[in-house]
Design a protein that fits this description.
The complex is a heterodimer of chains A (113) and B (112). Chain A has 113 residues and is mostly beta strands. Helices cover 4% and strands 55% of the residues of chain A. In chain A, strands 2, 4, 5, 9, 10 and 11 form a 6-stranded mixed β-sheet that branches. In chain A, strands 1-3-8-7-6 form a 5-stranded antiparallel β-sheet, with no helix packed on it. The radius of gyration of chain A is 14 Å and the shape is globular. Chain B has 112 residues and is mainly beta. Helix content of chain B is 0%, strand content 50%. Chain B has no helices and 11 strands. In chain B, strands 2, 4, 5, 6, 9, 10 and 11 form a 7-stranded mixed β-sheet that branches. Chain B has a 4-stranded antiparallel β-sheet with strand order 1-3-8-7, with no helix packed on it. The chains are: A mainly beta (113), B mainly beta (112).
């Protein structure tokens, strides 16, 4: 059974600081996603990572994937208050599961002024 | 911009009643997924369709739950004889094959 673990689960940081959220998964997968969720809202797709060594960046967020270590990271650079949200990683495998996603528990990020 | 839409957005019902939710995917997306999310947790997979065929169901989907996608477009998720444990956010997502899934706004269900 595929398991996805994120850490930390709660992260409080100051504006301007850098931090990294980690996502480990238990079995091989061929795609990894990062989503953002604001309170009471649905999920917004941030990144799709499809191959080992993939790196994608959007604004202050950068995601990377190491399939050998079964690890993805979401790096936050010079955090701003608007980044406060819950971030989920999710893993899918097309061949055996039609890409249904298995999500981590989420990392609740709070950026303080 | 016509993203995934879901109806209703909120539903309050009494235990034992039946409820039905609707999801309209992004047009031309052949895959449609249902997930359930409880407070403080990530979404959990329930079922998915490729066109009108229901290809996989989670063990979470008890026999009180049924989903359909009759013409390969919109989908419905019905819960019969609701229980308080069914209270959750029900999320629908669609994708054009095995690519990024785009989520709808969700239906928040409260069973009293």
């Amino acid at each position: 059974e595929l398991k996805v673990e994120q850490n930390p689960l709660f992260l409080s940081m100051q504006e301007g600081k850098n931090y990294t959220i980690y996502c480990n998964y238990s079995t091989t997968s061929d795609r990894l996603y990062w989503y953002r969720q604001d309170p009471g809202k649905s999920l917004e797709s941030l990144f799709v990572l499809l191959s080992n060594g993939a790196v994608k960046q959007e604004g202050r967020l950068m995601a990377s994937l190491d399939t050998k270590a079964r690890l993805s990271t979401l790096h936050i650079t010079a955090a701003v208050h608007d980044l406060s949200a819950t971030y989920f990683c999710a893993v899918g495998k097309e061949e055996t599961s039609g890409s249904r996603l298995t999500f981590g528990e989420g990392t609740q990020l709070t950026v303080n002024p | 911009d016509t993203g995934v839409s879901q109806d209703p957005r909120h539903k309050i019902t009494k235990r034992g009643q039946n409820v039905t939710f609707r999801c309209d995917p992004i047009s031309e997306h052949n895959r449609l997924y249902w997930y359930r999310q409880t407070l403080g947790q990530g979404p959990e997979f329930l079922t998915y369709f490729q066109n009108e065929a229901q290809l996989e169901k989670s063990r979470l989907l008890s026999d009180r739950f049924s989903a359909e996608r009759p013409k390969g477009s919109f989908s419905t998720l019905e819960i019969q004889r609701t229980e308080q444990g069914d209270s959750a956010m029900y999320l629908c997502a669609s994708s054009p094959g095995g690519r990024a899934q785009y989520f709808g706004p969700g239906t928040r269900l409260l069973v009293l």
